[in-house]
Every structure is written in C-alpha cells, then in structure tokens.
Write a structure and sequence with these properties.
Number of helices of chain B: 3
Order of helices and strands of chain A: HHHEEHHHHHHHHHHHHHHHHHHHHHHHHH
Shape of chain A: globular
Structural class of chain B: mainly alpha
Helix content of chain B: over 70%
Structural class of chain A: mainly alpha
Largest sheet of chain A: 2 strands, antiparallel
Strand content of chain A: under 5%
Number of strands of chain A: 2
Oligomer: heterodimer
Largest sheet of chain B: none
Radius of gyration of chain A: 33 Å
Largest interface: A-B, 13 and 13 residues
Shape of chain B: elongated
C-alpha cells in the first residue's frame, strides 16, 4: 500500500528535477541530462511499484475495489477548499506506467539525438517538466489539479515545438499549437465550472458519484460533457482542431514521440476516460444512439488516415496516424467500449513511440536530418537493420496484424462498437483499419525499400537547401558537426536500445488482454468495479471475443498491406516516383484536396482570419465612416449649440456663481478660524480638553 | 469595597495632569503631566477591574503602562531635538505652525 498512498511522488520527482536542471543544469557534467534521466527512472520505479501493489490489491472476479485517494488542502478561498492529492485506480496506474516508461526511453534516446544541441539543458528541463505535467494530470485527485497538469503540458509543448525557434516556421508552428489549444482550453474551464456547479465538488470521485447518482440534472451533465469534450478535441487533435498536430512535427523528434504516444494528445482521451460517468450520462452512451464523442472520433479516423496518404514527410505520416488512432480511442469511449479504448491508449503508446523514435533514427543516421521520404530516403533496410526491423514491427502492430498489440486493442474497440449497436462506427473503424495498413505500408516502402535517393544514397545536400523539412535549420549545424556522419549507417546503442524495448512492447503488450486466448488481465486490473451501494462508474459489459470477425478485421488489414505494397512496388520502383495520383486526373484532384488538408487551414486562415481583416473590416469601416460618423457629426453639431447656451447661462451664471460663493464664504470663515491657529500646542490641548468636557457634559445631561 | 476613593484619586490626578499639560511651559513637565493623565486612567481601570472581578482591566492597565513608556521615549527624543535646535524647551515659543 505504500506506493499506492505515495503516488504523488511520481509527478513530484520530475517536477523537482525540472528546477534543478533549470537552475544548475549547465554547470553539471552531463549538462542536466543526467538529472532528467535519473528523475524519470525514479518515477518509473515508483510507477512500477504502484502498478505492482495495485495488481495485488485487485482480487479476481467482480468484487468491488475502490480507488486509493489521498488529499491535502492546497488552499482555501471563501470557504471553498481546493485540494491536491492523488487518485490511484486502474486507469491512472496504467497511464503512470506508460508515461514514465516512454518518458524514460525518450530521455535516454535524446542523449544521443540531441547531443550538441545549443539548448540542450533547456530541452531536458522542459522535457522533464512536460512529463511531470502529464504525470500530475494522471494522478490528479480533482479538476483543478487536472487543469494544472493540462496547462503545464500546453506550455511545455509550446516551448518544445518551438525548440528551434531560429526558423520562423518552427515558432509559427509552436504558436499555432498553443493558440489552437488555448481556444479549446476554454472548454475545460467552462466544463469544470459547469460540473462544479452541478456536483458541488472538484473531486473526480465526487463528480463521478454525482453523475451516476441519478439525481444529477441531465442538462447540466450534457453541457458539462460538451464543454469538457471541446477541450479534449483540441488536446487530442480531433477533427476539426487536429490541424495543430501535424505542424507540431516542427519540434525535435523525441518531443514528437513523447507528445504523440503517451502524453499530451492522450490527455484528452484520458480526461474522457477519467470523467466517463459524466460523458456516459450526458451523452446517453448506453442507449446506442449517435453521440458527439463517437461522431467526432469516427470522422477523425477516416479524414486523418486519408491525409496520411499524401504526406512526403515521414513524421507527418506518423502524426496523421496518431490523429487517426486517437479517433479510435475517442470512438471507443463514445460507443461505450471503455476498457478497449484505455487498452488502445496503452498499446498505441508503445508502437507510436517506437515509430517516431525510429523515424528520428532514420533522419539522424540515415538521411542527413531530412524527413522527406521521397527525396532523401529509400533502401535503408540494409543500412539500418535494427531501425528497420523495429519500425516494421511497430507498423504491423499499428495496422492490427495478429498477434501484435494493435490487433487486440483495435479489434476489441470494433467488436464493442458492433456489440453496443453502433454498426456504422464499426464499419468506419474497419475502413480506417484498411487505410492505416495502406498508408503505413507506403511509408515503410518509401523509407526502407526501393532505390536509395538523395541523402540516403550518400548525396550530400547542404542543410540550408532542405529547409522545408522541419528539423533542418541553422541549429542543426551544431548537431551535425558533433555527430559527423557521412554515409547512412545504423544509429548507436542509445538510440537502438529504446527502439528495441519499445518494439518488444509493441509486439507483446497486446497479450495482456488477448481475449481470444482468455487472457484478460488488463480488464481485470484496470476496469473499474461497480460498487452497488454508491456507484461511481457505469456498468460496462465487454463484448465477447469472436474469432470470426476478429480474423475478418485482420484480413482487411492484411489486404490493405498487400494492396499498398503492390501499388508501391509498381509506382515507386522508378527513380522519379510517379505515384498513382500523378497519373490519373480524377485521383489527382483528390490528391490536391488532401495535400491542402481539406482546405481546413485555408478556411481557418482565409476564412476566419482574412474575413476579419478583409470584407468585415471594410464593412465595419464603411459603417464607421457613413453611419457612425454622420451620427457623431450631427450629435456634435447639436451639442455645440446646446453647449454654447449652457456655457453662457448655466455655466457662467449658476455654476460659477455657486463656486465663487463657496470660495468666498470659505475664505471668510477661514480668515476667522485662522486666529484660532496660534501654533501653540497648549492652546490646541486646551481646546481639545474643553471640547471633551463639553461633550462629556452633554452626554451626562442627555443620557 | 468602596470604589469612591479610587475614583476620586483618579479624578484628582487627571485634573492635575490636564492642568500641567495646559499651563506649564516646559515640555518635559508637559510630558510628565501626560503620564499623570495616563496613570489616572490606569487607576480607574484597576479599580473597576477589582469591582467587577474581571482581570481584563488590569491587563489593559499593563498595556497602557507599556505604551506610555514607549510614548515617553519618543516624546523625550523629540524634546531633545527641539532643545538642540533652539536651546530652549519652552512650548509657547514653538509657534511656527501659526496660521
């Protein structure tokens, strides 16, 4: 029980480490990196201890197990207590473990990847604070603490995406991410306020009990859920606010990996899972109708997967893949598949972190800091066997190939969607699975197979010429000089060891909940048990596993891989890489549509921004000139005439008369009273005592 | 217990103090007279404290004594400064504030 009750230490360790790195990092032998890595290892040890004790605490079967909650009063305002503490249950234990593990591996990886960077210490400090923010949010006991972690992450993501701010494109991306998130974060504040108003508490446990109590007003729950979900749309990159997420690739690759696997973007999904009763009741998820969450999730799956097909930047493919996978998680939560969605968070963290780190390894050692698959990659399988193998394992896991991690979690989401009556969304999920298999195969083919191109073929390109790739910029001269590489080669152990660990996780993590083999440990450990007396969680019934449909979705993924591979071989074999879309006019139009990201950025920039600065501004100007100015001029003329009359009569005679009269009388009385001011203290004293005596006399006589 | 004696003593001291404050020219003597006024109040406080069997009056008297000590400290410092500047502590000569 010690670890469960001291779970607050897990975020506290990196939080303290952040200050140590910031204040003294530059003077340390490892420039602060050692503190960062050590703190994450510490957190990981504590997280494993917590997980171990939690597993021991949970009995087999359905018996109720409550969360372990510790609270302290943080501050008090007007009789309202704001607490800080820890809320440990299966969900938070899962996330604690995943976040701590991925953060540790990413920090180890960064030792090599960021070596020689000009803001190395700064980078480690922020990376550590970032993990602290996520861990704090995961372990949070109340909404204020969740908000705290949420905003720490928003701030750190801004700083980390814009880590190489010398390139204006990078700082623009950072700003875009920050502003998009801020827009959505309004929803979180409003949602917290609504839920507090309804339940009278900030505590997660109390809010969930309130939502399940049956006495909660449905409209309060509905609007609270809508507001909170808007925040999640922004944070988790759901349609239509997903546009910041691919641009966030401007940051260093370890940041992308951390952001897009276990922290930050998962925060939105986590919030929905954490306050699931509110959403469950607010959106009537049990009834099987279309609701806000699964609709947004379903749209996100397909549009993001389609976008991933037309990217040439390997990290952007992965970014859209992340968006699409987050869509799966959201859709899972929206259709009542709570446990599969959380399990998908768990498995996705492994393979997505691995994919990003492998992409970073490719650019670090294989393609000369370029992320452009078409220009600078290809044929790297022989040069970088470990990176290639881990990338392929993770790709297969992501695509949902039996028996890797993604197969079990994705299939469970789809099976539950069908089981709970959301047939349409099951089909959407299957289409998404097909597309996932397709674009990931294209990505693997372009990177690791075919003929080497550009930097991968050993052509030296001046770094300045590749400035369209997010990572390539002036600051890279430092790293480049330090790393000193010419030919594509395998990265060193600091990079490959985390890759291998993550790939192993990607391969095996799914077996924790391999329902087909009746291994359902994850469900047993993580799914909240319902206490009949005071329910704090809806009763979830998981769909039974069936081999038929599961193998069907496996077949769809396999066909997707096969079709994509054949097409890639056919089109990308030649040097000039003419793809399908460049040959067919109709598909070309679709390509343009996708390359422009559904014109969403166009709409946001031209529509919202330009409308405000263009026609609307002109219209406002016209109104200003013609209507308001006319009105103002008329009023001005009228008031001038009136003003003159007032000046002559009222101002000069009445007001001035009164003022002068007051002045004169004050002068007169002052002249009289002046004599009293002798300057002699004793006369003042005599007046004082005399007045007091008269006052006392009056008091005695009257009373 | 008769309280009259105490009250009469207090009133006498108070009047003496007021007279001193108003009539003496020497600033030091004025300060001493202020002490008399304060002590007259103290006697009243203690007397009523005894009569009402309530200790807070005595506590308050102690506070008055402490504050009076501080006040005299500040007052004498001011008198000293006045003396340094003017070679005199006669109050009737200090009339720069005359309006």
């Amino acid at each position: 029980m010690w670890f469960l009750e001291h779970a607050w230490l897990i975020p506290a360790i990196p939080f303290i480490a952040f200050f140590i790195i910031l204040l003294g990092g530059k003077r340390m032998p490892g420039k602060g990196a050692e503190i960062g890595v050590a703190s994450m290892v510490g957190s990981l040890v504590f997280a494993i201890g917590t997980a171990y004790q939690w597993i021991n605490r949970v009995p087999e079967g359905e018996a109720f197990v409550g969360p372990v909650i510790k609270t302290w009063t943080w501050w008090q305002a007007g009789g309202t207590k704001f607490a800080i503490g820890s809320h440990v249950d299966g969900l938070s234990v899962t996330l604690l473990f995943v976040v701590a593990l991925i953060s540790t591996l990413v920090q180890i990886y960064s030792l090599e990847y960021m070596r020689g960077d000009r803001r190395y210490t700064h980078f480690y400090a922020l990376l550590t604070l970032f993990s602290a923010g996520m861990l704090n949010m995961v372990v949070a006991e109340n909404m204020i603490q969740i908000l705290l972690g949420w905003e720490i992450m928003g701030l750190c993501s801004f700083a980390l995406i814009g880590h190489w701010w010398e390139d204006p494109g990078n700082s623009r991306s950072a700003l875009k991410a920050f502003l998009t998130l801020r827009t959505a974060d309004v929803g979180l504040l409003v949602g917290i306020a609504i839920v507090y108003w309804g339940s009278g508490s900030f505590s997660v446990e109390k809010i969930n009990e309130w939502a399940m109590s049956g006495t909660a007003s449905h409209s309060v729950a509905l609007w609270g859920a809508v507001a909170l979900f808007i925040a999640c749309i922004g944070k988790s990159g759901q349609f239509p606010l997903h546009t910041w997420l691919p641009d966030a690739m401007a940051g260093p690759t370890p940041v992308s990996s951390l952001l897009h696997s276990s922290t930050m973007v998962v925060a939105g999904v986590y919030l929905v899972a954490r306050l699931y009763p509110v959403f469950f009741q607010g959106f009537h998820i049990a009834n099987g109708g279309v609701n806000f969450i699964c609709l947004i999730g379903g749209i996100t799956i397909v549009i993001a997967a389609a976008l991933a097909f037309v990217q040439t930047d390997i990290k952007r493919v992965l970014a859209y893949s992340t968006v699409s996978q987050l869509g799966y998680m959201m859709m899972g939560l929206g259709v009542g598949a709570w446990t599969p969605a959380v399990f998908h968070i768990f498995t996705h963290a492994f393979f997505k972190a691995c994919l990003f780190l492998a992409a970073g390894s490719v650019s670090h050692s294989g393609s000369h800091h370029s992320f452009d698959m078409k220009k600078d990659m290809g044929g790297l399988a022989r040069k970088m066997p470990i990176t290639c193998a881990t990338f392929i394992v993770s790709t297969l896991a992501l695509a949902g190939i039996f028996p890797l991690a993604g197969f079990w979690s994705k299939d469970a989401i789809l099976a539950n969607a069908g089981h709970n009556g959301y047939t349409v969304f099951m089909v959407v999920g299957l289409v998404g699975a097909f597309m996932t298999a397709g674009y990931m195969t294209r990505c693997v083919y372009l990177t690791f197979f075919g003929e080497p191109r550009g930097a991968a073929a050993g052509h030296h390109v001046a770094i300045d010429e590749t400035h369209d790739a997010p990572d390539a910029h002036a600051a890279l001269h430092d790293t480049h000089a330090a790393a000193g590489h010419d030919e594509p080669h395998e990265s060193n152990l600091l990079i490959t060891v985390p890759l291998v660990i993550l790939a192993t996780g990607a391969a095996l993590a799914g077996l924790l909940n391999a329902e087909g083999f009746h291994w359902e440990k994850f469900t047993e450990w993580v799914q909240p048990r319902v206490d009949e007396a005071a329910a704090a969680f809806p009763h979830i019934v998981n769909a039974p596993f069936e081999w038929g449909p599961a193998m069907g979705s496996f077949a769809i993924a396999a066909i997707g891989i096969a079709v994509s591979f054949v097409l890639c071989r056919a089109f990308y074999e030649r040097r000039e890489l003419q793809g399908l879309t460049a040959r067919n006019r109709f598909l070309g139009m679709g390509y343009r549509f996708l390359v422009n990201k559904y014109y969403l950025d166009f709409i946001y920039e031209r529509g919202v921004v330009a409308a405000v600065s263009g026609p609307i501004a002109r219209a406002v100007y016209w109104t200003n000139q013609k209507l308001i100015d006319g009105l103002v001029n008329g009023v001005a003329r009228g008031s001038r005439v009136g003003g003159e009359w007032v000046y002559r009569n009222i101002d000069q005679r009445v007001v001035d008369g009164a003022v002068n009269g007051v002045g004169l009388s004050a002068e007169g009385s002052g002249g009289l009273l002046r004599r009293v001011q002798t300057g002699k203290v004793q006369q003042y004293g005599a007046l004082l005592f005399g007045a007091a005596a008269v006052g006392a006399l009056i008091l005695v006589i009257v009373v | 217990m008769l309280i009259n004696e105490f009250l009469l003593l207090g009133a006498f001291l108070f009047c003496t103090g007021v007279y001193g404050v108003l009539a003496r020219r020497n600033a030091v003597l004025v300060l001493m007279s202020i002490e008399l006024i304060l002590n007259a109040v103290n006697i009243n406080l203690v007397a009523f404290s005894l009569r009402n069997d309530n200790v807070s009056g005595q506590v308050f008297a102690l506070f008055v004594i402490a504050v009076a000590a501080a006040e005299v400290g500040v007052g004498l410092a001011m008198v000293l400064l006045v003396y340094r500047n003017r070679r005199s502590v006669a109050l009737d000569e200090l009339s720069e504030m005359k309006g």
